Amino acid sequence: MLNTLLDKTYIEETYEYYKFLENNSSENNLKLLISSSNTWDHYKLAYHILKYMSIKSIEFVELKWLLLLMMHPIPTYRPTQEELSEHFKHYSELFQNKVNTNNITFKD
Domain residue spans in the chain? Predict the structure, then answer.
């Protein structure tokens, strides 16, 4: 799963998005990069959770999609704190409902 995060498409999309920085001043670039700093913790957290899920062979597709979105190469596409709270509230409800646990598999 983590290998797909670093595949050619992800890297190309990242470079394409930030390409315009080449022609900006360092000061403007710094301001732009810092403007998305509120998503950096989410990015890192998502990376670590995905890595753990991969190591432990945990399959929870909906959560993986959210985590991948939290790591989107374009910062403005990453969910806000409020959006994340709503998603995690929903996932928490899924875990509590024993009927839905068949959507989650743990592999050895």
Answer: 2-106
